[in-house]
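mind reviewing these tokens:
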Amino acid sequence: MTSFVSIIIPCRNEEKHIGKCLETILKQNYPKERMEVLVVDGMSEDKTRKIVKRFQIRNPKFQLRLLDNPKRFTNFAWNLGIKESKGEILILVGAHSFYKEDYVLKCVKYLNEYDADNVGGTIITLPRENTVVARAIALVLSSSFGVGGATFRKGSKKPKWVDTVFGGCYRRDVFNRIGLFNENLNRGQDMEFNIRLKKAGGKILLVPDIVAYYYPKTANPKDFFIYHLKDGVWAILPLKFVKTPFKLRHYIPLIFILTLPLSIWPYILLSLFFSLQISLKEKDIRLFFVLPMVFFCRHFGYGLGSLVGLGKILKK
């Protein structure tokens, strides 16, 4: 019998994207009667909730529920969704993303075919706005220089066992075996969970023909810097709550900040090299003048945030 699938979507103030996200899930070629969708809303202050309710009215046969997440953060949303769901298989997705029509079908297929505990695919990052800076942000988040070893962002030519994937398609028994997401972590909870899963002998598979499209949460340098500043804090702060550190790539920006007098010139040369390479590939020389700034916002913001996180731990 076809497995029953629960799709869990945490969101907060996602009026620009939640409609398109739900539309692409409605159009999945997986049997609708074997699928439910739980939108776990962090008490949105925009039109997100109205859009979801309107979607429920227009599609009465679509098993869609709207749940309240008064604690707002994603870790609480996922845990609430897991507890409220009834699927044998759970897929955790993002509200500011949309999905190919075979996304669910392929997740379930490869989960069973490879006997994996968590399956995900690659994400294609799209500009949030029609500006050069927004394009540069999307390109930085798809670049090896921008994201390091994050395979789900860079892509892969064949299925590959990895440390983490975007979202993730899990068997329910995974959560029975190793518990839920750590509610002490407002960010990085998915990375910590997958580290815990692998330590328990779990297997995480990335399959390149499982495809999602992703919009970054920011479209200007200031917000991009602040976003990664917070990410940097939460690359270090989990060490306060868990014993297992993240992968080395998450600490490279901190090393960059700590060795700034020595690393700044090699960094500038690498940034210019990759900026030129990307701008030539994209056939847009304007990007060459914007990309170095965006790379710096990501790396310096993340590194500075990591330093703040380290300070918080040492202070305690």
In short: Residues 5-219 form a domain with the Spore Coat Polysaccharide Biosynthesis Protein SpsA; Chain A fold (CATH 3.90.550.10). The chain has two domains: 5-219, 222-315. The first helix runs from residue 18 to 26.
